[in-house]
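Annex B. Sample input.
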Amino acid sequence: MSSSSALPLPFPFFFFFLHLLLLFPPCCTGCSRHLLLHAGANYSTSLADMLHGGSNVTDGLRRYLARFGYASSSAPDDDPDGNLIVSLYQSTLGLPVTGRLDARTLDLLATPRCGVPDLHLQPNTTARFAFFEGQPRWARAPGHFLLTYAVVSSSPPYQPLPLPRRAVRRAFRRAFARWARVIPVRFRETRDYNMADVRVGFLAGDHGDGEPFDGPLGVLGHAFSPPSGQLHLDAAERWAVLGGNDGGSADAGAVDLESVATHEIGHVLGLAHSSVPDAVMYPSLKPRTRKTELTLDDVRGVQALYGSNPRFSLSSLSEPDTSSASPAAATTTRSPGKTTSTATATPLLLLVAVAVLC
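Annex B, continued. Sample output.
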């Protein structure tokens, strides 16, 4: 019997799909634009209006960027094509500066983010972290000092907790501990919400502080500079605790509570947004992404305000955990619906086919 050099049957199909994939760039079901544009009315209307023009700079986009501190280049008469405002956005957030709404820029624009405006760094600086104007910080006696915090569960205008209280408290305890590890500040939870230094709550829509929330996968939360201590999270998000031991599976719109909490605590301490994409203080966070470990940029920024914890060494920093939650990851997700644990494997050909057809 003569040997045959023919490829096994699946391979021609594989190369066929690969050819289509190269001809037609895929729309990933996990990417920010897909989640926004294919999810209908459940997603942020401000983001939908912003991207309605596709690759054009729309009035909605100008208003959206003005909300986050890019107002200086938002006037259509001064920047009719929108190149200046897009370039400013790109340079501030560490993207290649093209002045165009390319794929990376559109994806970042559609990514859920913090509601605190981006403060623009001075040119030619080696530091990527930033502070609020005047560099406010908590004023306490030299050396270690204590800040208390409280999580309000349900007292109007605050909404009920979106997850079990134990899971929420645990997420914030870990988030505060990360900052306490690197600076001489201790954090302790208290039941007295009115007397706490830092006050955490979930709110919806216009909640009276001039910074209204806009629904799922828009603005995730915001916090105010010292000594305000106000830390607000959008109750409309589908909050989750990714990578925990509580079981369940994160859906496409799940947002990791611990990641957002760690970011907003940075604002409470006096840090503004960083231009380093891997930093905790970067303003955007993709759904189903866990981003909790402080980077060198985060640590240097907060230590510039408070000094270093004597027991902390920069050499102990680990790589930031910015992984997306896989279907097999253990999660706790905001109901409705019960949580279930799943672990699936998808054949390569099916993945390629889905990518092409998306």
